[in-house]
Write a structure and sequence with these properties.
The chain is mostly helical. It is built from four helices and no strands.
Length: about 100
């Protein structure tokens, strides 16, 4: 399997095509194959972006989102929970005596 192209290089290919270069000229300038240039242009023409939005990334599906993985957010909920417990326990102690 070949290396994937950066999104920046894909946009350069699209800009060269918009300037009127042929796919063969673009391939020579960008040091990629003509098939790659053709594929990038076809995806741009079909979807309006340089990466196919329906192609999933390879690998295992992520269980947690990046937002759920933030440690500081998890700690804030934990601290809030501990604070609620402390307030509840102090009320119990105050009302007993």
């Amino acid at each position: 399997m070949g290396k994937s192209l950066s999104e920046d290089l894909r946009w350069h290919i699209i800009h060269c095509q918009a300037e009127g270069f042929t796919q063969k000229e673009i391939a020579k300038r960008m040091y990629v194959s003509e098939a790659t240039v053709s594929k990038v242009c076809r995806i741009f023409k079909k979807w309006g972006c340089v990466k196919d939005p329906f192609v999933d990334s390879v690998g295992r599906r992520k269980i947690f989102t990046t937002q759920e993985m933030l440690v500081r957010d998890n700690y804030s909920y934990l601290l809030l929970y501990i604070l609620i417990i402390i307030i509840y326990l102090t009320k119990i102690i105050i009302y007993r005596y």
